Amino acid sequence: EAYRVEKEMLAAFGKDTRIDTSSDNIRFEDEAVSLDDLPRPPETEPPATAEAAAEAEIPRRLRGSPMAGPERRSPWKIAGGLLLILLLLAALLGQLALFRGLDIVRYLPQARPWLEQFCRHAPCRLHARRDLDQIRILERDIRAHPQEKNALLITATIVNRASFPQPYPDMLVTLSDLTGGIVAERRFTPADYLGKLNSPFLLMKPGTPVHIRIGVRDPGRDAVNFEFRFL
């Protein structure tokens, strides 16, 4: 096969260029150049499809792996969680029965049979005798708090006149104006007015005065009267 060479190419190669039309080689006086050595145009890759591009973006370790579904919780884990919830509820009810059994009976009399059954095996205060009329106030006072701004200090001395020990009562303090209208009212538990001296099984001994100090927010000048009531 013969090759056609432009004049400009021959001029570039020089006058000593010889063309052999009987072979695939173009020979020069100094060296022979094979057609296989000539630079070839770069091969163009076929355009990538959208699927191929998406596949390339997926990490190799995830290619072809099935989609992970939602993790199924073990029945044992579910049962363990329910058991833990039941134990926490039982502990909460037990604490209420131990420490506030009398209050539960007061507000929910239907619960008394179950509480009595429980208190046969636990040291709760359900069977403690109680007579609020025998708890008397010896002294009481309310004044501006000496250390806190916009606060009042309530002090009182109470005593158990009964012949038996009984639980410390809740105390309702009511502040009213000149016309008797209620300005402020708050209920205090033994934990509020006994502080660190309070104990779940602490009882008022007969004839022993108990001093109370409570700090409350000042409701304003309209509060001119105050009243204590045991609950």
Count of folded domains: 3
Q: Briefly note the CATH topology name of the largest domain.
A: Coagulation Factor XIII, Chain A, domain 1
What CATH architecture of the largest domain do you see?
A: Distorted Sandwich
The CATH superfamily of the largest domain is: abc- transporter (atp binding component) like domain
The order of strands across the largest sheet is 1-2-3
Poorly predicted spans:
1-7
Mean pLDDT: 73
> Could you state the order of secondary-structure elements as H and E?
HEEEHHHEEEEEHEEE
Q: How helical, in percent, are the residues? A: 25-40%
Shape: flat
Q: Could you describe the largest sheet, including whether it forms a barrel? A: 3 strands, antiparallel
Terminal Cα separation, in Å?
122 Å
CATH class of the largest domain: Mainly Beta
Number of contiguous helices: 5
Structural class: alpha+beta
C-alpha Rg (nearest Å):
49 Å
Per DSSP, what share of the residues sits in E-state strands of 2 or more residues? 25-35%
